[in-house]
Amino acid sequence: MIKRILCLIVMLVFPLLAQAEAPVWQIIPAESTLTFTATQNGAPVTGKFTQFSGDIKFDFDNLNESSVNIIVETGSVTASYKDLVDTLKTSDWFNVKLFPQAIFKANQFKKTGDKAYQANGSLTIRDKTVPVTINFNVSSTSDTKVKVSGSTTVKRTAFGVGQGEWSGTDEIKDDVKIEFTLSVVKK
Questions:
Q1: How many domains does the chain contain in total?
Q2: What global pTM score does this model have?
């Protein structure tokens, strides 16, 4: 009888353990960056977002239980000169008043190397959602803190970024490279 009870307990508890949630990670803003590089008249133009947050649940041993939801405050865009920043905030570009946030979500991850991964998700800018694949590398500084660096390239016109006189891709190219480095700590 005791063996049956123990067997029943194991059968009930084991599936719950197998479906344990992924660890939650918190972004350390002072140690994290989010930049983008576009090309205007053949020259790179770089900017960054200074305010972003995330709901990150990531288990290196169980990628199926992992998910990421990153929220970027579009009004926090900065660049090397004020005129560019002012232009990027207008209705032709990010339209920060109407669309104050850009959101990246992913729940499909694949290990592609020793400490290399790929996230398949979606990026929403200006209420337009487009599938995006991000390649990233992870380096540990401890069991409770990791550094994640990655990048992707998106087409700005797919999101309606650059409208009116800026909608063409001759002067300002369509491809925009997004790069990030996140320092995260396990909660």
A1: 1
A2: 0.88
